[in-house]
Amino acid sequence: ILLICLFGQDSAFMNIHTLNLVKELDAFPKVPESYVESTASGGTVSLIAFTFMAALAFLEFFVYRDTWMKYEYEVDKDFTSKLRINVDITVAMKCQYIGADVLDLAETMVASDGLEYEPVNFELSPQQRLWQLTLLHIQERLRLEHSLQDVLFKSAIKIAPEDSPAPLNACRIHGHLYVNKVAGNFHITVGKSIPHPRGHAHLAALVSHDSFNFSHRINHLSFGEMIPGIISTLDGTEKVSPESNHMFQYFITIVPTKLNTYKIAADTHQYSVTERERVINHALGSHGVSGIFMKYDISSLMIRVTEQHMPLWQFLVRLCGIIGGIFSTTGMLHGVVGFLVDVVIFTQDTSLAVQENSETSALMENQQQH
After folding, report:
1. Which segments within 261-318 are labelled E, that is strand?
2. Which domain of life is it from (predicted)?
């Protein structure tokens, strides 16, 4: 029993000794409240500091809620898969006069079975015109942006309303095609296409030149999976030609993109485009074929886009940094300002004391002389 008591006393002594050592390591000394003096200036500075803390913490919370896109670039190693082309174009010619197909770099003609030809009216109804103007306004805003995120991932407006008043003098070509991942040429020209040993040909001789009119409107053109809400570069583009023999060319560079956000995950493609158009006049040396030609090339680089969010621990660290930084800075500023004020007051008091001593000495000298 005596040994147990001695062991218990030694343990209690060790605990007290350890507690004293921990107290000596306290980096936050406690000042008794009786020694703390509250001032109006200190209260004002504290109020300003707390206001700044609350405002910055509130703004930091919105930063924490926001997300950003991380861009990674790598070589596209997928050469075997097919590239999907999504098309929705309205041409100001009747459907029986035109044909659309794709010819790739290897002179391989791609079957256009996935395209539908729908007779429509080229002139838009007021509701459709309003939709197109809205889409063009969005496109103009997107061209001013410098971030791929804003160009590619912003939500768009709904699809165009279907309203085709008579007469049906135009043709809407819409659908999708699967092509090889090599450069190619998607074109819409006069006459239906027929197979040819050296590629293909169009039966243009059966169509009168008076029927030529390649004024067109690109309702939608994209590559890859169809993602609702994404606005592509050429969406809403409208070209009106006063001449019958007119060639429109679009030179497109396609960039494969793997998109992974909190809402969607898809393999899509971005593209940039250069436009060119001219009137076909063989007498003046402007040779070519009337129609709409979209020559595309695929970039060898792939962009991987991932949406990221600030971790909770980072938000808490930033929040502590804001609160501690403002608290320390305002404390130092208050101390410096208080010191300067004390120096100024001390200087003024010293000057007054010296002046009073001088006046007193002069008065005493006058009294001694009298």
Report:
1. 265-279, 291-298, 301-309
2. Eukaryota
